[in-house]
Design goal:
The chain has one domain: Alpha-Beta Barrel (TIM Barrel), CATH 3.20.20. Helix content is about 45%, strand content about 15%. The chain starts with a helix and ends with a helix. By secondary structure, the protein is of the alpha/beta class. The longest helix is centred in the last third of the chain and has 21 residues. Helix 4 crosses helix 5 and helix 6 packs parallel to helix 7. It is built from 9 helices and 8 strands. It binds pyridoxal-5'-phosphate (PLP). Pyridoxal-5'-phosphate binds next to strand 8 and helix 9.
Length: about 230
């Protein structure tokens, strides 16, 4: 199996080429290494290879690893967040990428205010019309963002989506395009307290297409750490 370091170099090379095709600067694109099921030693290797951010999809798992690793890197929550885990999530994550409902927004807001902080979040949008996926519908996202813009304990920094599970990366392109359209709609609405800095889209199977479509945050697991059990 290739080392984490080799994998990171390979992913970075692919990002560079995709960015070049799209006339973009690869330096504008951040890799979040998604480490669910991955042990602390391999996470450490990813950080040593230059990965700036670690993503997790379970609060409990993240907690243990943060404890073991110390605060060597920012951690992002990328999976569906249950409300009873928000208190811990606010404590350990620098960004919650998976804000997917008003009730969750209310809980994050209230826990952040209690902790005396402002929680950065991305709004997750369901761009694939797959029932099984969490996230706001594209057409309801603008109103949702307007509503949460008045919450003092959270700060919307952008959007996140998980592309459709389809065999060809090219088939996922419309999902990414749609997320970008929603982003532009929100920017045009000039809502106070809302920033649209981040477009988090693209995983192992489709990150090059995501780069071509404007992603500046990629969430990559398998291509960095190898296949999950
Ligand atoms: C697991 C996961 C990823 C990374 O998936 P890979 O296909 O292994 O790159 C990205 N985003 C989310 C939300 C995930 O749960």
């Amino acid at each position: 199996m290739a080392s984490v370091q080799e994998n990171v170099a390979d992913v970075q090379e692919k990002i560079n080429r995709a960015a070049e095709r799209a006339g973009r600067d690869p330096a504008d694109i951040t890799i979040v290494a998604v480490a669910k099921g991955v042990d602390v030693e391999r996470i450490r290797q990813a950080l040593e290879a230059g990965i700036p951010i670690i993503g997790e999809n379970k609060v409990q798992e993240a907690l243990q690893k943060v404890k073991a690793l110390g605060s060597g890197a920012p951690w992002h929550m990328v999976g569906h967040l249950q409300r009873n885990k928000v208190k811990e999530a606010v404590r350990i994550f620098s960004l919650i990428q998976s804000l997917d409902s008003l009730r969750l927004a209310e809980e994050i807001n209230s826990r952040a205010l209690t902790a005396g902080t402002i929680m950065d979040v991305l709004v997750q949008v369901n761009t694939s019309q797959e029932e099984s996926k969490y996230g706001l519908e594209p057409q309801e996202t603008l109103d949702f963002v307007k509503t949460v813009s008045s919450f003092k304990g959270l700060s919307v920094r952008g959007l996140m989506t998980i592309g459709a599970f389809l065999p060809e990366p090219e088939q996922v392109r419309p999902c990414f395009r749609l997320l970008r359209e929603v982003q532009e709609q929100i920017i045009d609405a000039r809502i106070p307290n809302i920033e649209m800095d981040y477009l988090s889209m693209g995983m192992t199977s489709d990150f090059e297409v995501a780069v071509e479509e404007g992603a500046n945050m990629l969430r990559i697991g398998t291509a960095i750490f190898g296949p999950r059990e």
